[in-house]
Amino acid sequence: MKENRFYAMLSRMKYIRRWGLMRSSREENLSEHSLETAVITHALCAIASRRLGQPVDTARAVMHALYHDCSEILTGDLPTPVKYFNPEIEEAYHRVEAVASTRLLEMLPADLREEYAAAFAAPEGRAGRICKAADRISALIKCIEEAKAGNDEFLEARKSIEESIHAMELEEAEIFLKEFLPAYSSTLDELSRGR
To answer: What would the pLDDT profile of 66-91 be if each residue is shown by its tens digit?
Structure first.
């Protein structure tokens, strides 16, 4: 029987360090980021559906958010300034990501590949935009945590990430930023007291 390596490879997400060019007060790994992105995606989908009357395929969006960066198990986390330095590099990196995703999917038994290929692929329309916004909000939260720890290294990143979220013009993301983001600056005691 062929050895199936897919889940063992996915478990290595915890070894992929994010923010490689930045001095961090606490390292963040790909597993943490993926879970946080999935949680925020769920929140944005709930806001879109419940408050804005814009139903989205929540399960599809959350599944994609959970797996959105898993190709980085094979590629590593390429820093944003490098990844988006110019269109040629960005396009080449997307091709590398696609090859890495295919290699991961090939580690699965054939009867499971279609299920995971669907999760790897970004959803269309609003659900896809929600996943992108959640990814950026997760990065923004990292910037807030670093500032809270007295690390000014992330100040410029915070500013550019906030601008990129606002530029998306996604109402559910704006609601999340207004209502839920401020609590990320709170201490445990403040959060526990319900201030």
So the answer is: 999 999 998 877 666 666 667 787 78
Rounded to an integer, what distance in angstroms lies between the CA atom of residue 75 and that of residue 172? 31
> CA quadruple 130, 40, 34, 168: dihedral positive or negative?
positive
Query: What does the H/E/C string look like for 40-95?
Result: HHHHHHHHHHHHCCCCCCHHHHHHHHHHCCCCHHHHCCCCHHHHCCCHHHHHHHHH
pLDDT tens for each residue of 160-180: 999 999 999 999 999 999 999
Residue 100 · residue 71 · CB < 8 Å? yes
Among the listed residues 191, 163, 189, the one whose alpha carbon sits nearest the alpha carbon of residue 177: 163
Number of residues in the chain: 195
Q: Identify the CA nearest to 159 among candidates 176, 147, 172.
A: 147
Going by C-alpha positions, the residue among 113, 136, 123 that lies closest to residue 63 is 123
Closest by Cα among 126, 151, 131, 135 to 54 = 126
* Adjacent-strand bridge partners of 29: 17
Which long-range CB contacts under 8 A does 173-179 form with residues at least 24 apart? 173/44, 173/130, 173/133, 173/137, 175/47, 175/51, 176/40, 176/43, 176/44, 176/47, 176/137, 177/137
